[in-house]
Amino acid sequence: MRPTAKDLAEAAGVSLATVDRVLNERPNVSKKALQKVNDAIEKIGFVRNPAAVLLARNKTYRFQFVLPQKGDEYLRELLVRVEEAGQTARQDLMDVSVKQLATDDPYQLSRYLSSIDEQAVNGIAVMAPESPQVRDALGRLMARGIQVVQFMSGQENLLSADFVGVDNYAAGATAGRLIGRFLPVMPAKIIVIADTMVARDSIERRRGFDSILNVDFPHLRTLPSLETYGDEKRTATIIRQVLEHNREIRAAYIMSPECRVPILAISEYADPRALTVVVHERTPFSEHALRDNVIDAIIAQDPGHAVRSAIRILRARTDMRAPIASQEKIRIEVLLKENL
Question: Which of 9, 155, 176, 212 has the greatest number of C-beta atoms within 10 Å?
Answer without folding.
Answer: 176
